[in-house]
């Protein structure tokens, strides 16, 4: 009898239970035993096999409709210590697991690859890619599961913020989760029709200067005022915070620092930092603007999956079982044009780092071009039109040539 182990690593994403349920149902119908492994690699890497239990069809048949994970999850990383990795393989052997399905993002995928290598064929491993960030290196146009549900819920939140902004005549800066890439921010901002969206991929320079990001936001506010509208919503990808120049943030109080006193960029309150900078810059020129800020992310991760992810994750769970029973191992499970296509782990790796590649937003697509075209930003044409430039300059009390110099950084 084949024995399947299923575990979940990383942050939650809508649809996890769909993978668990479908994999359990198909594996048991094929005569296999299924073992649920709780909290990812956490207990296995300690040699603890007590946090595992058998799963059966009758208890998982409807879990695909639920958010969260019936197996919980953790970010425990067995690859950081060779002893922990060996303990994982030993624990799986003790449980009799010869087929392992991991569900997670890039870190879990890397751990799954290392487990497969260390097991040397005793344990066949398949990884199901999961992240609302949509940043795993799947073929173009194929989302990671959970992304579409998260995008749908984020779109509703942004749409409501836009209506609040219109009603109260104010601005909101909405920071949307996305550790490195701007897929979720751009997808939700575009769908909601946000005034503008800032994503890391729109900044070829590295690091990103705070002044430039703030000037783009300020320019959008001023251009909207010139159009007779005093409200708007700017969607800002979380990943911009990790690329800000630390030197621009030294004056910020109450921000977390490491043991050397350096600012932890991942902990920067991005929305508040940009709000305060833009608000103070406009106030210095006599223009008072009310700006609120909101973070959107954690409330998306355990949402009940939408119809797309309900269907998608059941295919992925069943596909993982079929792939492993068919003799394949060390693969990522994908669905391409309606077919399950296993991708070897080696195809996902960056040869320079040895880690899973990150899929960034492709800014050369028609989709990105239309997203940009539908936003409100200061553009070179605004600064070249003398009559329109004067309108913009008057809003902030500058001479036209001063306004052109000031907002050129926003273009």
Biggest sheet character = 7 strands, mixed
Which range does the strand content fall in?
A: 5-15%
| Sequence of strands across the biggest β-sheet | 3-2-1-4-5-10-11
- How helix-rich are the residues, as a percent range? 25-40%
What is CATH's topology name of the largest domain?
Answer: Rossmann fold
Number of strands: 11
Cα radius of gyration in angstroms? 24 Å
Number of helices: 14
Shape: elongated
Q: How widely separated are the two ends?
A: 63 Å
Strand/helix succession: EHEEHHEHEHEHEHEHEHHEEHHHH
* CATH architecture descriptor name of the largest domain: 3-Layer(aba) Sandwich
Mean pLDDT across every amino acid position:
95
CATH class of the largest domain: Alpha Beta
State the domain count: 2
Stretches where pLDDT is under 50 for at least 5 consecutive residues are: none
Structural class: alpha/beta
Task: Characterize the structure shown.
With 411 residues, this protein is an alpha/beta fold. The protein has two domains: 3-145 and 305-348, Rossmann fold (3-Layer(aba) Sandwich); 151-301, 3-Layer(aba) Sandwich (Rossmann fold), CATH 3.40.50. 39% of the residues lie in helices and 14% in strands. It is built from 14 helices and eleven strands. The strands form two sheets. A seven-stranded mixed sheet has the order 3-2-1-4-5-10-11, with helices on both faces. The protein has a four-stranded parallel sheet with strand order 7-8-6-9, sandwiched between helices. Helix 5 packs across helix 6 (183-192). It is elongated and about 80 Å long. The model has no long low-confidence stretch (mean pLDDT 95).
């Amino acid at each position: 009898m084949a024995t399947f182990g299923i575990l979940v690593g990383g942050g939650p994403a809508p649809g996890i239970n769909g993978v668990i349920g479908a994999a359990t149902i198909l594996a048991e119908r094929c005569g296999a035993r299924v073992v649920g492994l709780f909290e990812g690699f956490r207990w296995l890497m300690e040699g603890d096999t007590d946090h595992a239990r058998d799963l059966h069809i009758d208890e998982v048949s409807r879990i695909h409709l639920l958010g969260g994970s019936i197996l919980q999850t953790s970010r425990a990383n067995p690859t950081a210590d060779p002893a922990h990795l060996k303990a994982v393989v030993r624990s799986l052997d003790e449980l009799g697991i010869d087929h392992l399905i991991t569900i997670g993002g890039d870190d879990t995928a890397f751990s799954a690859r290392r487990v497969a290598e260390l097991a040397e064929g005793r344990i066949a491993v398949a990884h199901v890619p999961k992240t609302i960030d949509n940043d795993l290196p799947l073929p173009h146009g194929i989302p990671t599961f959970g992304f579409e549900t998260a995008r749908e819920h984020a779109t509703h939140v942004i749409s409501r913020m836009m209506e609040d902004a219109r009603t109260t005549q104010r601005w909101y800066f909405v920071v949307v989760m996305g550790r490195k890439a701007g897929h979720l921010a751009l997808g939700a901002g575009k769908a909601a029709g946000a005034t503008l969206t800032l994503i890391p991929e729109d900044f070829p320079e590295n690091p990103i200067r705070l002044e430039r990001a703030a000037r783009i936001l300020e320019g959008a506010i001023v251009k909207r005022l010139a159009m007779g509208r005093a409200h708007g919503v700017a969607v800002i990808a979380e990943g911009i915070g990790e690329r800000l120049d630390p030197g621009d943030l030294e004056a910020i109080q109450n921000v977390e620092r490491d043991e050397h006193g350096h600012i932890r960029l991942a902990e920067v309150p991005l929305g508040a930092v940009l709000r305060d900078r833009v608000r103070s810059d406009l106030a210095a020129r006599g223009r008072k603007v009310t700006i609120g800020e909101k973070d959107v992310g954690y409330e998306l991760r355990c949402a009940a999956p939408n119809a797309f992810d309900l269907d998608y994750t059941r295919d992925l769970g069943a596909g993982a079982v079929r792939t492993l029973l068919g003799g394949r191992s060390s693969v990522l499970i994908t669905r391409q044009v309606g077919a399950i296509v296993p991708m070897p782990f080696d195809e996902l790796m960056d040869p320079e780092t040895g880690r899973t590649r990150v899929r960034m937003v492709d800014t050369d697509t028609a989709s990105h071009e239309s997203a940009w075209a539908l936003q409100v930003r200061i553009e070179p044409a605004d600064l070249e039109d003398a009559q329109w430039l004067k309108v913009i300059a008057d809003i902030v009390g500058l001479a036209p040539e001063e306004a052109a110099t000031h907002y050129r950084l926003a273009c």
